[in-house]
Amino acid sequence: TVTKVFDYLFSSAGLAFHYPNYQAWMRLATGQGTVADARFMVHESREIGLMEQAGVDFMGDGLTPNTPQHDAWYNGTFEPAYMAAHRQALRAEYEFLVGQVAKATGDAVHLTPEELAAIDPTSSEGRDYMQGSDGKDIKEHVDFKAWTQRANEVVTLPPATARLLGLSSPEIKLGDLIRLIRNTKMSDLSTLASE
Predict the structure, then answer these.
(1) Residues sharing a CB contact under 8 Å with residue 69, sequence separation 6 or more, in sequence order
(2) Dihedral, CA atoms, 32, 36, 37, 43, nearest 10 degrees?
């Protein structure tokens, strides 16, 4: 739920305050949320859900940072559980982004989460931490280099998408499209489904 995500982001003894998280939260709360902000919520919700399923104390309530008790909890409980959940949450966020790319291209471009993570020009986190369906880091996949090269693949957008993104031409490189989609307001992108 939204309350759990808020508490996790801003009250967990395991997470540092990150201003970009605050900015995303404020955009979402004021109806200005972008695709990247929605992706952020998908990620955090999945991360929490995975740690809850594993029965992990991911909040560390009552612990004071930089104390022996906090350090023991962080190193022995939180960090290992967080990293395992984070890797899987990356897959959930890239699955979400795959759907947004398909929507923006009129269902003409279908990527796998691994492909999108490999070519994402806005973040290396997927490349650095996401595992493929085979359980290995995507950078180790035999097709990783081919996936990264797809960033230069030219796609032709539907006219409505090109207008929405402020493009003078419907043709755009896939990497550039991903960057623009991430920065597009969710409310604007959702109008494409009705056109």
Answers:
(1) 63
(2) 160
Q: Considering just the CA atoms, what is the radius of gyration of the chain in Å?
A: 18
The whole-number pLDDT of residue 193 equals 58
Cα–Cα distance for residue pair 70/150, rounded to 1 Å: 44
- Say whether pLDDT at 195 is over 80: no
Which of the 8 DSSP states describes residue 151? G
pTM of the predicted model over 0.85: yes
Q: Give CA torsion, residues 34, 36, 39, 45, to 10 deg.
A: -80
Type and span of the H or E element at 82: helix 79-104
Rounded Cα distance between 2 and 5, Å, is 5
